[in-house]
Specification:
Layout: E1 18-25, H1 31-38, E2 43-50, H2 61-69, H3 73-80, E3 86-89, H4 92-96, H5 100-114, E4 117-120, H6 121-131, E5 136-140, H7 145-157, E6 161-166, H8 174-179, H9 182-192, E7 199-202, H10 213-220, E8 224-226, H11 227-235, H12 249-257
Parallel strand pairs: 1-2, 1-3, 3-4, 5-6, 5-7, 7-8
Helix pairs in contact: 6-11
């Protein structure tokens, strides 16, 4: 009889510490790399793609609202086949376009369908703000202004006031949001800064914000929360070795210290 496959229990082999699943909008190119960058060693990553929106249309509140209402049964069935410890709903704007009640209901419905815990990106951002005690934030995203209005109202419902916001010029398409260079995201975060802010929120799972968190924190002297960093933070309690691969700012550094 041969011995057990050591890959099943060796965190260095990329498995053994848990299974992290994600539902990712089909044009998103940045969430998966960020999850791979931040997920704890030994946690395997499993992804299903989400449709339900027009790739050529501007992702405004109507398009993102439609994505939030798109059927989840089939992608959930497929990704639940790996028996994940937690599933991440990887679009911030799809649920914040509808509001907190919709976000909570989607999470509960998806968890019931999949038989696993489900964390939404919008909910994770709120949880991260609460963990760091942030009540007044600066906000930035690649969204159109009307969708930013919905995002700010979503935060306000959770008791988080937006004291200043920064937006990109023009209306970026689905691929254009993901194509923003990390330096452009850093500049966007800089424009969001405000003396009254206790932290900076960079919202969008398809924005390359994870790469500039520590630089922006050092410049601003404030904690920075991004959608993908917050998703990893929210997933940690469901994983057996709850230590992110790298700190990525105050939020994940606090998780590593816990």
């Amino acid at each position: 009889m041969t011995g057990p496959d050591r890959r099943e229990t060796d965190p260095g082999a990329g498995r053994g510490a848990g299974r992290l699943a994600a539902l990712v909008p089909f044009t998103n190119t940045n969430l998966e790399p960020d999850l791979a960058l931040l997920a704890p060693p030994g946690v395997s990553l499993h992804v299903a793609r989400l449709g339900g929106y027009d790739v050529d249309a501007v992702p405004d509140e109507a398009q993102m609202g439609g994505l939030g209402e798109a059927a989840l049964e089939e992608p959930l069935r497929l990704v639940a086949g790996v028996r994940p410890d937690v599933i991440l709903y990887g679009c911030t704007s799809a649920t914040l376009a509808h509001g907190p009640a919709f976000d909570a209901a989607l999470s509960a419905r998806a968890a019931a369908l999949a038989g696993a815990a489900v964390v939404t990106a919008a909910g994770a951002v709120v949880a991260a703000c609460r963990h760091l005690g942030l009540q007044r934030v600066a906000f930035a995203s690649p969204y159109v202004p009307s969708l930013n209005d919905r995002a700010i109202a979503f935060l306000a419902h959770a008791g988080i006031e937006t004291v200043h916001r920064a937006e990109v010029p023009g209306a970026l398409g689905n691929h254009e949001q993901g194509a923003l260079a990390s330096e452009d995201v850093l500049a966007l975060g800089r424009r969001a800064q405000h003396p009254a802010a206790e932290g900076i929120v960079l919202s969008c799972t398809d924005m390359r914000a994870v790469e500039i968190v520590e630089r922006l924190e050092a410049e601003a002297g404030l904690p920075v929360i991004t959608s993908n960093q917050a998703l990893i933070f929210a997933a940690l309690p469901y994983l057996r070795h709850a230590q992110p691969r790298r700190p990525c700012g105050h939020l994940l550094a606090s998780a590593r210290a816990a």
